[in-house]
Design a protein that fits this description.
Number of strands: 7
Low-confidence stretches: none
Organism: Henosepilachna vigintioctopunctata
InterPro entries: FP_C
Number of domains: 3
Oligomer: single chain
Structural class: alpha+beta
Domain FP protein C-terminal: 98-144
Protein name: FP protein C-terminal domain-containing protein
Keywords: Coiled coil
Length: 153
């Protein structure tokens, strides 16, 4: 029994040392990230709150979106955030007018457009993998794209 207690204490000490190392790494990472962030604010008061992060450099935001695209789905549990099911989503914080235009552009899915996305402050659409990318500039352009093919000629 004494040997088991010694082993348990030794194991706890090793785990504690590892936790201290992990803590230092996290503190360093957070400190370096704080230097790159201008502001963090929360929007909403429900379970699915939105956290808005404003970065000092555009490149960091682009890198974050690129990495997210590589990773795919990001789960709360995998990130060490609680133990409930859920995912973390990344989205651009769009101005109201641009957000409305983007929502309107998403209606193009019903008219044969397979890809509708926002990148580098531009709304982009594409019918298929092989068709040209179209930059959406105004609502009239979307309305024209929704018109049947006969009317577009």
């Amino acid at each position: 029994m004494l040997d088991e207690m010694k082993k348990s204490i030794s194991k706890i000490i090793q785990e504690n040392k590892q936790l201290k190392k992990d803590r230092e790494v996290l503190i360093t990472r957070v400190a370096s990230l704080k230097e790159e962030v201008i502001s963090v604010r929360q929007r909403g008061r429900n379970r699915n709150n939105v956290v808005l992060i404003k970065f000092k450099k555009e490149g960091i935001r682009k890198e974050l979106f690129r990495k997210k695209k590589e990773i795919g789905t990001l789960d709360l549990v995998d990130c060490g955030i609680g133990n409930r099911k859920g995912s973390i989503y990344f989205d651009e914080d769009l101005l109201t007018d641009i957000r409305k235009l983007f929502q309107k552009a998403r209606e193009l899915r019903k008219h044969g457009f397979r890809y509708i996305w926002f990148k580098d402050e531009q709304i982009l659409v594409r019918k298929s993998n092989f068709s040209n990318v179209i930059k959406i500039k105004c609502e009239n352009q979307i309305i024209e794209m929704m018109a049947p093919a006969k009317q577009q000629e």
